[in-house]
Design a protein that fits this description.
Elements lengths: L3 H7 L2 E6 L5 E7 L10 E3 L15 H11 L2 E4 L2 H9 L5 E3 L7 H8 L4 E5 L4 H16 L3 E4 L8 H8 L1 H7 L14 H11 L3
Helix pairs in contact: 3-6, 6-7
Length: about 200
Amino acid sequence: MATAEDMVRGGEGISPDVNRASRKQAVGGVVSSLPWQEPKYLNSSETLLYSKRKILFNLDKAQLPIMDEGYAILVEGQMDCIVLFEAGIRNVVAGSGTAFSEEQALLLWRYTDRVVLNYDSDEAGMNAANKAKELLTKFGFEVEVMWLEADTDPAAFIMERGIEAYRHWIPAFPKRPLLAGITADDVGKQIARYLNL
């Protein structure tokens, strides 16, 4: 079985997982595009310093664009995130090979309280998006779900139809100043809710 180190040497779509300060912590990505080869995706092993549940892929580059746009686009996979970012969508982040977690929600909360979920439009993606929406809503996020055509992922959609076609699918959030209407009491309530106080 391939290891994360093997991916660096021979993987098809490998990228580093970095923390908010752009420090590399691990690697992950697509090992094989062939459906019969396992695993298709591979990430570094969990360590004391690296936990997939605590990382949002591309957050180091997307922090300022998320604050500027007033919302984040959350996609399922790293390749989706890379394709969107390279096509000019800068406020995009992705999970790191795990279901969206409370830790990731709290991390995202530092930059916005509005999210567009754009997971793959297959059954597994729809189920994962519904769970992520439920979790984000629990933390007080305003959430829009963006479904592309059936059985399509964001990267494939952009490669086939182009970035302008993708932009037409993005739900519109009205622009607002950063932290408008959010008080210290609101933040305290969110933290208390998370800590079950």
